[in-house]
Specification:
It contains seven helices and 18 strands. Helix 2 packs parallel to helix 5. The chain has two domains: 32 residues, no CATH class; 244 residues. Helix content is 21%, strand content 26%. Strand 11 and strand 12 form a beta hairpin. The strands form six sheets. Strands 1, 4, 6, 9, 10, 11 and 12 form a seven-stranded mixed beta sheet that branches. Strands 16-18-17 form a three-stranded antiparallel beta sheet. The chain is α+β, with helices and mostly antiparallel strands.
């Protein structure tokens, strides 16, 4: 995956034995010709009002299609809280996300993705949460690269889920600043084991990434990271490694229903309730049973 020279070997060590799949990014060294394969930033959850290209238009079919690869039949999930402020944190984000992941398992919200089939089977509603870990080292003050986040995952997760079923979200304590997105997901390998991973900023006090949980069951910061986590995890289950499901413009099921809410609150299997976006369903669109996304395409399911 790297150019075969000494510099490449040092980069491998520096990345904590992480290897990355995806698009090659030129590091700009004309003498060595070195390229590092930067994992792709998939399913970017754009902030409200950020100008970016929406796919699915132009008169083409809004349906997602399969691209010949695998899906996550069952996902093993984990959370990594990265940043110097987390060890002394006493708010509701850590305990709240623990409850979120436990309740996602076998929830109606998880079922919104169950129609999708890959080379290894069909997406199932069951997920297994292994808990959270806190890394009190300083998180990057600006938007990190995908390889930086992958290195963090490989550093913290000593035993990734076997068979490539692991999905680990890194929650930074840094705010997004000028970044135009709230969260994203990607994939790579840790010590030869495939992993999926996500990243989200600290979204407390960030109006561009606020789902506006008016019942205020949770702090605004928790409600915000919970909403984007639903977007990214649903996409990783249906398109873990770029061979799964997305439409002709590259939008995944979370992208297609971003910033649309089919129910005031969604109840998870453990009884917790969340203000959380819907997810795209080809079946719902074809049968006319979904609610419309921002383009008026009625294929979103609330998961209530």
């Amino acid at each position: 995956m790297f150019a075969k020279d000494r510099l490449a070997l040092s980069l491998i060590v520096a990345l904590f034995m992480c290897s990355c799949g995806g698009e090659a990014v030129d590091l700009g060294s004309s003498s060595s010709g070195l390229e590092i394969r930067e994992p792709p930033m998939r399913g970017i959850h754009w902030a409200r009002g950020f100008a970016h290209g929406h796919g699915g238009g132009g008169g083409g079919s809004p349906l997602m299609t399969w691209h010949g690869g695998s899906i996550l039949v069952n996902a093993t999930t984990g959370a990594i809280f990265w940043g110097a402020s987390w060890p002394a944190y006493t708010g509701d984000k850590i305990t709240g996300m623990d409850s979120w992941y436990v309740g996602f398992n076998n929830s109606n919200y998880a079922v919104t993705s169950d129609e999708y089939i890959g080379s290894n089977g069909q997406v199932g509603p069951g997920t297994s949460y292994v808990g959270h870990q806190i890394d009190g080292s300083a998180a990057p003050p600006r938007a990190p690269s995908t390889s930086t986040v992958l290195a963090e995952v490989c550093k913290v997760v000593s035993n990734p889920a076997s068979y490539g079923t692991g999905y680990y979200t890194v929650y930074s304590d840094q705010q997004r600043g000028n970044a135009g997105y709230c969260a994203w997901h990607s994939y790579g390998t840790c010590s030869g084991i495939s992993v999926q991973f996500g990243f989200t900023f600290n979204l407390a006090g960030d109006p561009g990434c606020d789902p506006q949980d008016t019942p205020q069951l949770h702090s605004q910061g928790l409600a915000a990271i919970a909403n984007v986590t639903g977007h990214e995890l649903s996409e990783a289950r249906t398109n873990p490694r770029n061979g799964g499901w997305y439409d002709s413009s590259g939008e995944e099921n979370g992208d297609k229903c971003a910033w649309t809410f089919g129910a005031p609150l969604v109840t998870f299997s453990n009884g917790t309730q969340w203000k959380i976006q819907g997810e795209w369903s080809n079946n719902a669109y074809n049968s006319g049973t979904g609610y419309p996304n921002l383009r008026g395409e009625a294929g979103c399911l609330s998961g209530q």
